[in-house]
Amino acid sequence: MALIEFRGVGKAFEGGVTALEDVDLEIGAGEVHAVIGHSGAGKSTLVRLINALERPTSGAVVVDGVDLTALSERDLREVRKGIGMVFQQFNLLRSRTVFENVAYPLRVARWGRAERERRVTELLHFVGIAEHAWRYPGRLSGGQKQRVGIARALAANPKVLLADEATSALDPETTGEVLRLLKRVNTELGVTIVVITHEMEVVRAIADRVSVLEAGRLVEHGDVRTVFTDPRREVTRRFVATALHDRPAADDLARIRARHPGRLVTARVRDDVRIGPALTAAATGHGVAFEIVHGGIKDVGGAAVGSLTLELTGPDDSVDRAIAALRATTPVEDLG
């Protein structure tokens, strides 16, 4: 069941700038949904429409069955209580301790002191930062600050958590830790998470489904495994390549050709094909030798995804037959 719906949504700003155009999108309850695109694609505008910090120029945004476009500002404040937000630059109150930062939205919502303290303590333990409860943000690392930000976003038990480039300011190791924490928020607390990012590795690591924005339009979406294994649009293929690093770039290919004069081909690795036996059968069955010269395979949604670039050596007609045999089991690109 869709928890968040975009129905023909457009958003234009003063000066004729169109941020989003005719977006139709459903985000299911309980999923981690990533929205990816380059700078200026409309990602941040889309997330601000979900919590109604922006209103669409056309169409409707529906959250938990409520059309946000039909609500007054007073009613929107009530809706926003069920939507948490995690920011790229943390947005913590520097003059308040970790405990006070997490307690702040509960204080605004007029929770009782005992109930407030119980909730904050619970959340600080959940995100793994209870030992720093009385420190100020200035004494925390970036990863610790983001854990505080996640705890604060969860304070009022939201159904939806919006993470806008939440790991962009973090190093790779800390990024992994924060992504694992967000996944726990989803699986253990049942919170629906919308991740806004320009990094396909973030999508691979955490998301169930992904939507690709380009110049304000939704150009591709689907489950993560399908989008990684069979991207339809060129922008998506470029994003996937940045996460898998499985195909040689032009300069890599030139160096490979200098060392390997045989025929070069790239074979896609599919979860439903045992690539090793398939490659051995195709090559040796036609008297062709092969060597793996480049490649990368990663786990995406529990499936092996990637490709291998091979040097095939033998008579041209034998190599042609070997490529044809391999193509019977998996897509193959002949690089010559």
Automatic annotation (TrEMBL):
CDD domains xrefs: ABC_MetN_methionine_transporter (cd03258)
UniProt keyword Signal, yes or no: no
Alphabetized SMART domains for the sequence: AAA, NIL
Gene3D superfamilies tied to this protein: 3.30.70.260, P-loop containing nucleotide triphosphate hydrolases
Pfam families named in the record: ABC_tran (PF00005), NIL (PF09383)
One example GO MF annotation: ATP binding
PANTHER family: AMINO ACID IMPORT ATP-BINDING PROTEIN, METHIONINE IMPORT ATP-BINDING PROTEIN METN
Protein name in UniProt: Methionine ABC transporter ATP-binding protein
Organism: Actinokineospora guangxiensis
Lineage per the UniProt record: Bacteria, Bacillati, Actinomycetota, Actinomycetes, Pseudonocardiales
